[in-house]
Amino acid sequence: MNVKQKTIKAPVSVSGTGLHTGQSVTMTFNPAPENHGYKFRRVDIEGSPVIDADCDNVTDTSRGTTISQNGASVSTIEHVLAALVGLEVDNVLIDMDGPETPIMDGSSIQFVDAIKDMGLVEQDADREYYHIPYNIHYSEPDRKVEMVAMPLDDYRFTCMVDYNSQVLGSQHASISTISEFNKEIASCRTFCFLHELEMLLKHDLIKGGDLNNAIVVVDKEVDEEELAHLAKIFNRKDIKVAPQGILNNIELRHQNEPARHKLLDMIGDLALVGVPLRGHIMAARPGHAANVAFAKKIKALIKKERSRKHIKIYDPNAKPVYDTVQIMKILPHRQPMLMIDKILELTKSHVVGLKNVTMNEDLFRGHFPGTPLFPGVLQIEAMAQTGGILVLNTVPDPENYITLFLKIENARFKSPVVPGDTVIFHCSLIAPIRRGIAQMKGIGMVGDRVVVEAELMAQIVKRTKTEEE
């Protein structure tokens, strides 16, 4: 049974203060269309720039996760994204009138409650999961960070933290399925050590901190004078060290709340992969930088697999649109410079051509005769001739015109081409042809293997009498 995508029924807002900026901010979750994903919109900036929640847009992970795009940034996004993943929301546009999401109580629960109260609606499109195909590893040996994503037909998390602290020690947290997030993880608050709190205060980096939104772990000897100083800063009558080794500003919601919050952060950061995942994520000592690096590794694998899936395999024995004789009626090239043997497919926007590479071609007498390779420059020429058929197909009487190639960009040669290979060239227009100028993206393949790709620009020119003769 296919699972449908979901969005929120109607806009719903939450307001609060940014932890690090101290700025008041109102954040509004808006319904979004299918396949929209998660996006933030800075409505306080002229033009209301939109920022995609994408790991490639991450610009800072020092005190939370920050993304930037189109000249705008949004910081501390991980708790918001974790709430959306936990509720299995697919599409939402998040309006913000400030640079940082509200910290609320330091967890995701208030975001979860606001969205749940508004309700979700199913959309027509199916949710497309990415199933982890095999074990994907990530590590940072210097920080003793270890992460692995393993195949599983669900979304499961296991997290271990170890801070060399007598108070925290080693802690573990886990959920067996993402549906447990709301009950087990969403309410778990962020935490920091007392020495970190003092450093942040000294550098004026937690302007929105008020001791209601963080667990403060006391990892050093602290006297009454220092506690009195903290009480004054945070406008509290009395601050003590609780028996659990934390400041008594709040009570723990779970014995392993810090580990659970690290798991929450991980869920939020991995949302930046951009698609819902199916797999078991295990992590030791995760942090925002490692989470984002791991997300990028998974996204790169997804991109690679999707590019392969969208590659059509053509039958070289199928009846061609143009054979060699017909190609020569359109193109001015002749042996040994005619590089295309067949045109397999031709539309107004793309063309597919075929080149059989054989050992009896004259070029192999001089090009690495002991290890014959089809030259990359001639692969580009064959691609250009394929594109020329597409361009000339847009004018009446194409035999009266030629194509002059003006520019070649981003050419990449990914795999050797040798005698016996059949290269399929696919060229498609990047933009409509204007004033006889065509821009194309070309890919050359041998079987399901990409061997060359490039972007080409060509101009349609009428043949001269000399060329016609």
TrEMBL record:
Principal localisation: cytoplasm
GO biological process: lipid A biosynthetic process
A Pfam family this chain is assigned to: FabA
Example of a GO cellular component annotation carried by this entry: cytoplasm
Keyword Nuclease among record annotations: no
Domain of life: Bacteria
UniProt xrefs under SUPFAM superfamilies: Ribosomal protein S5 domain 2-like, Thioesterase/thiol ester dehydrase-isomerase
Pathway it works in: Glycolipid biosynthesis; lipid IV(A) biosynthesis; lipid IV(A) from (3R)-3-hydroxytetradecanoyl-[acyl-carrier-protein] and UDP-N-acetyl-alpha-D-glucosamine: step 2/6
Subcellular location: Cytoplasm
InterPro entries, A to Z: FabA_FabZ, HotDog_dom_sf, Ribosomal_Su5_D2-typ_SF, UDP-acyl_GlcNac_deAcase, UDP-acyl_GlcNac_deAcase_C, UDP-acyl_N-AcGlcN_deAcase_N
Obligatory cofactor(s): Zn(2+)
PANTHER family referenced in this protein's UniProt entry, alphabetically: UDP-3-O-ACYL-N-ACETYLGLUCOSAMINE DEACETYLASE 1, MITOCHONDRIAL-RELATED
Protein's name according to its UniProt entry: UDP-3-O-acyl-N-acetylglucosamine deacetylase
Organism of origin: Mucilaginibacter xinganensis
